[in-house]
Specification:
This protein is of the alpha/beta class. It folds into 3 domains: about 170 residues, Response regulator (Rossmann fold, 3-Layer(aba) Sandwich); about 120 residues, Beta-Lactamase (2-Layer Sandwich); about 180 residues, Hypothetical protein af1432. Helix 12 crosses helix 17, helix 12 crosses helix 19 and helix 17 packs antiparallel against helix 18.
């Protein structure tokens, strides 16, 4: 483009050559911003490349638009934005984060305004994707070697050397480079989202939560997704939807056909507005993940398929976890039954105890108490784990365990051994697993006879040194034991029991646990 873009002549004939070159350039048809703005729907389907012209010379803007006005790249048109100062350019860069290339003058409101803008874009905005072509009419003001070395620019052009062809070539090269970088960045971000989704799903411990989480993460994985469906084989010819995010009113026939076919042969299928991929576990029926919306780019497909691969592994792991969990539950019930044979009152007592312990834990959780210990797992586990609180009684002689009336001092010493015996049995059984029914049961068995002031047994622990599960079960255990008849005592009136809980709060019991339990009883209408 030689130079409608320069600031002025220098008396050596350059002006005439520039005017001749500019007259050649003007043979290209011009594109106006108004014309480009007309087809909004078309832009959404095929968005234009954005090129920002930053120059204080209005003629430079006009000539650039004339030269590149009909330009397109990869079947997408080019749209130009104009800024006449570095300050205007900064505003446009914020307003249009998808700008692909900048044709940037050096000397504008100051001699180095363009160079300062480069630093602002790269360092303050952190924008490493946009391609910056520096154009200067005064090369001596910003020598090429120094500028290339000191500033993160992608091309350097003296306006006097820019013919129409060279400007076109530089623009295409910039757009192609931006496209490659943007593709890499989208892929990187997509992989991050896939791995984050996989980590999130790995932490879910129920199949319904897992499937709901999968469709939610799948819907958020790609731009333009309107619905995500997870389908399994149906009873009839069509698929059965097992989880969804944004279920459409009607599924197009071709989408249903692709889901059914994918479930049959395990192959992914992609249409213009939908994609179907398959999750195949080791010993479960396949599931098809269907995304509706789009249009989807080629780079989207491997991301969705990677997510499905990770999800299939996650489903297999979840099934193994469920089997392990079921085995632990069966073990808990077996040990609980063993204790029942030794102590006739244990059966109903442990059921009530489990309900009270769970209710106390939930109330404490709602109060945000013990935030570093209480979570959903704790609340879900303590009820069943509390069944094991007296499992150590299997090691106590029947003559002591079933003696009517009070035990003497020697007999009481033997009886107190059940706490340590129960903890030992359960710790051996849990195999080092710290987050399971057996491990929590071991804590409860060992500590539910400890007292908050340190006067309990078997270790004389005090305050927060007593495991929280033990402190909770201690309150629930005493409450239920006193309310019901035992071979050695009659049942107490509930008012007497509540008076004792209040009186022993801070000595026998953790006062925070007592307060939570009283709130539970009040909500339950237990006559608090």
């Amino acid at each position: 483009m030689a130079d409608g873009c320069d600031r002025g002549g220098n008396g050596d004939g350059t002006d005439e050559r520039r005017r001749e070159s500019a007259s050649d350039v003007l043979e290209f048809a011009a594109e106006t911003e108004d014309a480009a703005d007309g087809d909004g729907d078309g832009w959404r389907r095929n968005p234009p490349w954005l090129i920002l012209i930053v120059d204080d010379d209005h003629e430079v803007h006009a000539i650039t638009r004339v030269v590149l006005g009909e330009m397109s790249f990869e079947e997408r048109p080019v749209r130009f934005l104009s800024a006449y100062t570095a300050r205007q350019a900064r505003s446009l860069l914020v307003e249009h984060p998808g700008i692909a290339a900048i044709l940037l003058d050096v000397v504008m409101e100051t001699d180095d305004a363009g160079l300062k803008l480069v630093r602002h874009i790269r360092e303050e905005m952190g924008n490493r994707q946009v391609r910056i072509i520096l154009r200067t009419g005064q090369p001596g003001q910003a020598p090429e070697r120094q500028v290339i070395a000191a500033y993160d620019i992608n091309d350097y052009k003296a306006k006097s050397e820019l013919t129409a062809q060279k400007l076109y070539t530089a623009a295409v090269a910039a757009l192609r480079s931006y496209q490659h970088i943007a593709t890499i960045e989208r892929g990187r971000q997509g992989l991050e989202r896939v791995m984050e989704a996989a980590d999130h799903l790995a932490g879910l411990r129920s199949r319904s939560q897992f499937l709901a989480g999968l469709v939610g993460r799948a819907a958020a994985l790609l731009t333009g997704v309107q619905s995500a469906l997870l389908c399994g084989p149906g009873e009839g010819d069509g698929p059965a939807i097992v989880a969804e995010a944004g279920l459409p009113a009607d599924l197009p026939t071709e989408v249903v056909a692709d889901i059914v076919a994918a479930l049959g042969d395990g192959q992914a299928r992609w249409g213009s507005r939908h994609g179907v991929t398959v999750l195949r576990g080791r010993d479960v029926a396949p599931l098809a993940l269907c995304l509706l919306g789009g249009p989807f780019a080629e780079g989207d497909r491997p991301l969705v398929e990677l997510l499905c691969t990770k999800a299939a592994v996650g489903l297999d792991n979840l099934r193994l976890y469920e089997r392990l969990n079921q085995a632990q539950i069966a073990t808990v019930h077996a040990l609980g039954k063993l204790a029942e044979y030794k102590d006739e009152v244990t059966g109903d007592h442990v059921k009530r105890l489990g309900r009270w312990a769970t209710a106390i834990a939930r109330e404490l959780y709602a109060r945000n108490a013990f935030a570093d210990e209480l979570d959903d797992w704790f609340c879900d586990t303590i009820g069943l784990a509390s069944v094991l609180h007296d499992v150590g009684k299997v090691g106590i002689p029947d003559a002591i365990l079933r003696k009517p009336g009070r035990l003497d001092e020697a007999e009481m010493a033997v009886m107190r051994d059940h706490a340590a015996i129960g903890g030992s049995i359960l710790r051996d059984a849990c195999g080092g697993d710290r987050r399971g029914y057996l491990s929590m049961g071991a804590e409860i068995a060992e500590s539910h006879h400890e007292k908050f002031d340190g006067s309990g047994y078997p270790r004389g622990l005090a305050g927060d040194a007593i495991p929280l599960a033990g402190r909770i079960v201690a309150v629930a255990d005493v409450f239920d034991a006193l309310l019901h008849r035992r071979p050695y005592k009659k049942a107490w009136d509930i008012a007497e029991v509540l008076d004792l809980l209040r009186a022993e709060s801070g000595s026998h019991f953790d006062p925070r646990v007592v307060d939570a339990f009283l709130a539970v009883l009040e909500c339950d209408g237990a006559g608090v």
